[in-house]
């Protein structure tokens, strides 16, 4: 793939939204203030009723309307990508904020390497983030950048494919070459695309200098639902399953969190850590076997109700 390194990439920023709230205006302001301004900002709005679409239009964004019942993480992003005219696509979520003015420039720089297919940013926990959430972000998004290829599969397993559409960029021609995102999918659309790129011989770049503010204080019940959808999406893509048996990143994170809580005298948080990770594990296992569950339980356990 020929890349003109002297010419900066035109980045089409794509943001799916649903009632994005008052902070959304700040996100748009921060994007426009980038050292490498976005070529365009495309907002795929899922029938918001809080003025999100109107705010985006007033800010000069291209707004695409999506019915809530037709939303899915892969299909909606594919729909928006088809409307994009930039050299590269930068996928973001409505609740991620650039930490500085170099976010787009950094990710565009990662994509200047012709061997890199997909590049994602570092996620920095918000100031109000819970201690466990902060540690999770630091574990999954360390201070050092990383380049992952097929050669890392034996050591890292599925973590080789880890990539987050909270803030991730891919060249438009590469996106089309790889067939876009899996659709429909309720979860992991970014990981599945990254996996196809790696298995085709390309690299995934984690750029720790490209930073966004992003975190959630999920309850154990919310984590159960997230991991139910995680497991269900994995079970629907059987080709990915052989890579899940390698690597123990999850258990390493739990051990590190427990040790940190004990070291800092926050041992009363240990039961919460156990409950949260039990919810994740049970949710994931049930999701992997969701087809065996009654439709009522599938809907109750999922954050995204299955269509049909």
Mean pLDDT: 93
> How does the helix and strand content classify structurally?
alpha/beta
CATH architecture of the largest domain: Alpha-Beta Complex
Q: Total helix count?
A: 12
- Kindly state the number of beta strands: 9
Report the span from N to C terminus: 41 Å
Determine the CATH topology of the largest domain: Spore Coat Polysaccharide Biosynthesis Protein SpsA, Chain A
Low-pLDDT ranges: none
- The first-level CATH class name of the largest domain: Alpha Beta
Shape: globular
Q: What helical percentage do the residues reach?
A: 25-40%
Radius of gyration: 19 Å
The sequence of SSEs as H and E is EHEHEHEEHEHEHEHHEHHHH
Main sheet attributes: strand count, strand direction, barrel closure: 9 strands, mixed
Strand content: 15-25%
CATH superfamily heading of the largest domain: Spore Coat Polysaccharide Biosynthesis Protein SpsA, Chain A
Tally of individual domains:
2
Pfam families: Glycos_transf_2
Protein name: Glycosyltransferase 2-like domain-containing protein
InterPro entries: Glyco_trans_2-like, Glycosyltransf_2, Nucleotide-diphossugar_trans
Summarize the structure.
This is Glycosyltransferase 2-like domain-containing protein. The chain has 308 residues and is an alpha/beta fold.
């Amino acid at each position: 793939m020929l890349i003109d390194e002297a010419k900066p990439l035109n980045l089409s920023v794509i943001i799916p939204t649903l009632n994005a709230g008052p902070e959304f205006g700040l996100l748009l302001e921060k994007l426009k203030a980038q050292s490498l301004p976005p070529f365009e900002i495309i907002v795929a709005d899922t029938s918001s009723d809080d003025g999100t679409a109107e705010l985006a239009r007033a800010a000069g964004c291209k707004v695409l309307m999506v019915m809530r019942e037709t939303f899915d993480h892969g299909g909606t992003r594919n729909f928006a990508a088809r409307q994009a005219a930039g050299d590269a696509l930068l996928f973001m979520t409505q609740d991620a904020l650039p930490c500085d003015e170099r976010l787009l420039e950094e990710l565009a720089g990662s994509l200047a390497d012709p061997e890199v297919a997909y590049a994602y940013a570092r996620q920095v926990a918000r100031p109000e983030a819970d201690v466990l959430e902060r540690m999770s972000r630091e574990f999954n998004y360390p201070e050092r950048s990383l380049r992952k290829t097929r050669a890392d599969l034996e050591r890292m397993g599925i973590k080789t494919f880890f990539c987050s559409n909270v803030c991730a960029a891919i060249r438009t021609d590469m996106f089309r070459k790889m067939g876009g995102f899996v659709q429909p999918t309720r979860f992991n659309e970014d990981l599945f695309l990254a996996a196809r790129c790696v298995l085709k011989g390309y690299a995934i770049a984690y750029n720790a200098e490209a930073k966004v503010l992003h975190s959630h204080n999920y309850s154990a019940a919310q984590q159960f639902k997230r991991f139910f959808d995680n497991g269900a999406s994995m079970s629907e893509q059987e080709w990915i399953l052989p890579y899940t048996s390698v690597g123990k990143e999850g258990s390493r994170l739990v051990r590190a969190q427990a040790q940190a809580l004990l070291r800092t005298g926050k041992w009363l948080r240990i039961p919460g850590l156990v409950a949260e990770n039990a919810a994740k594990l049970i949710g994931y296992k049930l999701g992997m076997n969701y087809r065996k569950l009654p439709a009522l339980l599938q809907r109750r356990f999922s954050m995204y109700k299955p269509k049909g």
